Design the sequence.
C-alpha cells in the first residue's frame, strides 16, 4: 500500500543539507504554523513503508535468535555452552524486535522556529512534538568536539543548546564521523546547523536596533572577558572588573581562531604580559554564528 503525505513541500523548500527533497519522502504530519514559513524539511519515512505486526516481529525474533543459539551449540558440540547460546540468541532476538519497531521522524526549519516530530507503532499514532519558537529563546550555545584515540579520529560530538526565556533548554545533540568535511546528507547535524543559520538571521533585526541605539552589539559571556562588544571598526572587551577596553581593528596585531578558541592581540601587547590579549572559546560565546556575521560586517574580520 502506498500512503499519501499529510504535507507536501512547496517549490523552493529543500532538505536540511540544501538538496532536493525526494519524491518518496513521506511527511506524516504537517509543520505547526507557529514556526512560520518553512525553509527546509526532512523525513526518514517513505510512502511505501508499512508497520510490521507485533506477531510477525516476535516470530522473526524467535526464529533468528533460535537459529543463532542452535548454531553456537552445534559449532561448540558440547552441552556446556547451552546457557551462553540461549542468552546470545535471546539478546539478538530482542535487538531484532526493537529494530523492527515502526519508529520514524520528520523535522522542519521555519523562519520563526524549528520542530521535530516522532511517530511510533503505527501511521495513525499521535506524533510526539519537540518544538522551539525563536521568540521564546534568548541565546544559542554551540559545542563541537572532535574525538581522537591514540591519534586516530573517532568522531565528532555536537550540542546545540538554546536557552529559553522560560522553561528548560532546547537541545539538539549527536555524533557524526567526518573529520575534515560536513556529514553526509540525511545526518541529523544538518538539521541543527540549518536551525543555527536561520536563528542567526532571525536575530539580525534586533542586532540592527542595538547598533543604532548603543553604537555596538554586545555578546555577554561567563568568565573573562565578561562580554565582547562589536562596533564599526572596533571591538570592546569587558573585563572581569567590568571595565571596557576598546581596541580599533587597525590596532590589532594577531587575530586567530584555532582549536575552538578566539584570540585577539593588540599591537602593543608584550609576550610576558596578559595586557592587550583577549581570548575566549567558541562554545562560551552566545550566538557564535551571529558573532561571526557581525564581526565581518562591522570590522571586516572574517574566518572561512
Sequence:
Amino acid at each position: 500500500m502506498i500512503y499519501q503525505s499529510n504535507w507536501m513541500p512547496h517549490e523552493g523548500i529543500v532538505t536540511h543539507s540544501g538538496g532536493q527533497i525526494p519524491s518518496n519522502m513521506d511527511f506524516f504530519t504537517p509543520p505547526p504554523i507557529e514556526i512560520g514559513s518553512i525553509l527546509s524539511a526532512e523525513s526518514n519515512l517513505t510512502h511505501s513503508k508499512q508497520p510490521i505486526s507485533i506477531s510477525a516481529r516476535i516470530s522473526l525474533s524467535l526464529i533468528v535468535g533460535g537459529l543463532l543459539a542452535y548454531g553456537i551449540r552445534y559449532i561448540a558440540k558440547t552441552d556446556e555452552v547451552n546457557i551462553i547460546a540461549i542468552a546470545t540468541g535471546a539478546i539478538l532476538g530482542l535487538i531484532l524486535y526493537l529494530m523492527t519497531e515502526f519508529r520514524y521522524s520528520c523535522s522542519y526549519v521555519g523562519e520563526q522556529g524549528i520542530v521535530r516530530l516522532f511517530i511510533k507503532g503505527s501511521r495513525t499514532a499521535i506524533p510526539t512534538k519537540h518544538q522551539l519558537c525563536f521568540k521564546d529563546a534568548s541565546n544559542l550555545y554551540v559545542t563541537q568536539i572532535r574525538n581522537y584515540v591514540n591519534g586516530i579520529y573517532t568522531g565528532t560530538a555536537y550540542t546545540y543548546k538554546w536557552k529559553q526565556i522560560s522553561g528548560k533548554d532546547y537541545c539538539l545533540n549527536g555524533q557524526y564521523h567526518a573529520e575534515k568535511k560536513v556529514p553526509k546528507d540525511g545526518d541529523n547535524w544538518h538539521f541543527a546547523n540549518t536551525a543555527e543559520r536561520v536563528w542567526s538571521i532571525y536575530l539580525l533585526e534586533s542586532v540592527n536596533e542595538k547598533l543604532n541605539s548603543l553604537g555596538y552589539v554586545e555578546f555577554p559571556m561567563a568568565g573573562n572577558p565578561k562580554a565582547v562588544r562589536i562596533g564599526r571598526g572596533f571591538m570592546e572587551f569587558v573585563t572581569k572588573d567590568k571595565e571596557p577596553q576598546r581596541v580599533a581593528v587597525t590596532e590589532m596585531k594577531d587575530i586567530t581562531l584555532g582549536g575552538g578558541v578566539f584570540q585577539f592581540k593588540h599591537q602593543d601587547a608584550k609576550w610576558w604580559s596578559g595586557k592587550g590579549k583577549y581570548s575566549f572559546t567558541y562554545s562560551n560565546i552566545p550566538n557564535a554564528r551571529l558573532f561571526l556575521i557581525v564581526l565581518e560586517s562591522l570590522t571586516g574580520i572574517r574566518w572561512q
